[in-house]
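Support reply, case 0932

Customer input (verbatim):
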Amino acid sequence: MISLKNIKLDDISASDISNEYVYYQSSADEHKFQMAEDEEFYLGLQLTRAQKDYLVSVGQPPEANNKIRPAVEQVLSNVAGASPEWDVRPTGKTDSEVAFVYNKLLDKIWYESDGDRHFRSIVKDYTIKGLGYMYVYPDWQAEQGRGGIKVKRVAPENMYVDPNSTDPFFRDAASIMLSDTSTKESMKVMFPEHANDIEDAHEDYRDDDYATSKYNRDDIIRRSDVNDDGQPKVRRFIRWSKVSEEQILLTDKLTGRQKSFNKKEYDEFKSTKRYKAYIQNNQVEEEKIFITRVRESFVIGDALIYDIVLPLEDYPIVPCCNEHNGNPYPAGDVRHAKTPQRMLNRTEALLISHATSTASFKLIYEDGAIDPEELEKWFVPNAIIRANPSALREGKIKELSPPAISSQLYVEKQRYETDIETVFGAYKFQQGNPSGAVGTFGEAKILDEASSRKQNWKILPAYDMLTHVGRIVSKYIPYVYDKERILRVINPLGIEKELKINVPVINDYTLAIERMYDVTTAEVDIRVVIGSTRSKSPTADLAKDIQLLQAGIYDRTQVIMGLQGDVDKSSLIARMSEIEKLRAQNQQLSKQLQSMTGDLQTRERELFHTKMRAEVSEATKPVQQAVSNLRATAKNEERKQKEMTDKTAIDLADLRSAVNSEETASNPFEEQMGLG
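Our regenerated output:
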């Protein structure tokens, strides 16, 4: 049996953290100055006070033609136009149902944290300033005190990182620090048990809202402008560093499965029957290992509020670097667009100056050529101005016109605008500007695909950040959601349902109490689906889904699930189901109608033939009557002939009888003739 020690934390004081903050701040001072200037250019603060004063003095509007802001907004609409989709896959013995629970937990955490809004701000930060941060933390006051997990954006101006870090996620940093100021009263509400320490803490009004003071910003209100409200303020620090923790790695000799335990978990496991059975059967191997853990120290003013160890291997502050340079000070897209924006402002100032000069008359005249009273009429419409005698003839009055402006200025202006668009991959026609539209649909498609590829490459760091955030959330879940709880989740159809996790059940074979949907022992791999946050064209997606439907790859439900906007998908699916039933019934009725139509046609043909027979019968009645009469006449004649024949036969018989009666008497004639 191996014994374990609790994590030993080196003593750290509030002054140690404050001194470290000063060191990190001085190292990042130039970077924060650059971030402030980048943001000022995005806001349109692109002219110095001297430049504005000069433009006003020559009668020009002291404004810049800000092409950076619409380009940034186009990137935001393309990159952060939808909620991220999580791909959670089980690893080890974890089943797919528990992975499904993790997926729903991630959606729940993202929704309750207002993750979409924070993500848009982060994308805006790393596009403008080169760096964005998302913070993952347990909120023990959420869900009626049961606790929950939240994510939020942290201003990059408030983050301070070990300058020796070279990792894009700053995982190799000795420490990372979040520092900002807040009112003492708000801190007392959050930590009432430390109210006295907070009240005694020295006040701090240093603001992390950097400003260059280089550009005129009379029309922009910053946090620093309203910070001096008279309320006592104090600086707070949240410092993250890394420590090593002793753990026991248990390996099951039969299955090869491994499980690590810290001291508290190991002590609890040793008291179970399962552990005793393992030891008795010599089924497990025990090995001491060291696991990296994150240490979190919280300081308000001069007081160390708490110093704890988190169940994490990586910092809960996840950076998103736009253009990582091997240090914690990356550059954003605005940094590369400032030079063409400056040249554009200068070019447009020249064009405006020439237009102003063209619209204004400049007159040179000798003394005495024009009376001063006549000059007052110069700008009066339809005025008649009298010159003194011979002044015009002798050329004493001359109007000066500025030379024609070079067309090269317009070429340069277009080039600078294109340079800005190229930096962001956001072109005029994508921003809804018809003047920037290309000639054909094919050309627009090619340009849009090229822009999308560029923006896809630029958004990959944001997806890496989201994947890292999901994995940190998965590390927090077993510690926050460690008891039986009912989660209200929304299925893809938008229907809310209840899902129970960590439900105790009895194993029918071992009779041991286990847990269904156990998220405390789950092992999952979490990634964000690439492209899931991209803004989508509802029309194009619907056309694609319809093509897949026609090809037999999709069914109608999949097409409906892909619909965007305010669509009641469940009702639509139910209606489609009813329509399918009605369509099937209609098809059946159509077949019946077709069959009945055939029968009707048959009956009509039979009726026609019957009618024809009736008409023929009616037409042949006179003939039949004549035939009948002939037959009757014939029969009558036959009867008469028979009667005549019978009478003749009777007469003949009578005749024969008379002849026969006379045969017996001698015939005198015969006798006379010698015949007798």
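We compared this against your earlier run and they match. Two observations from our side: Residues 72 and 424 are 7 Å apart (CA to CA). The chain has a mean pLDDT of 79. Please reopen the case if you see a mismatch on your end.
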